[in-house]
Amino acid sequence: MPSICIQTDWGPFTLSAQQDALTHLYLPQQPAPMADHTATPLLSEAAEQLLAYLSGRLRYFSLPLAPSGTAFERRVWAALCDIPFGETRSYSEVACQIGAPRACRAVGRAGGKNPLPVFVPCHRMIGKNGTLTGYAGGLMLKQRLLALETEEHI
To answer: Among candidates 81, 122, 76, 116, which has minimal Cα distance to 96?
Structure first.
């Protein structure tokens, strides 16, 4: 599977793709497989867009994504992609959006299994009372991503 590691001020991010779509983004705090440094056109474009986002110059990604998961997880991830830049939704709001209002915990688990964080913005999902809750890259990264989206960079 082609993959590249890009060094940023935020730490190293590893991108992986299969065929013509991104499949994984490993955050700085996550264990990542060794990148084979196969810079395909797709991975190069993904790296450029990720760097532009992290520097506050990009709000929306335009990349083919192919996260692997259950039908329920994919519904949650699709709902996360509907959360506008700079906004958040609670786990219960996402559960209601996908038609499963009692599945708040399952929504949280699906967010935790998201193989494409940032591109599928699970960092925009927060606790019902507005608190930051778990994030695969750590709460400091989640807070930093949310702060990036509320600042007037763009």
So the answer is: 76
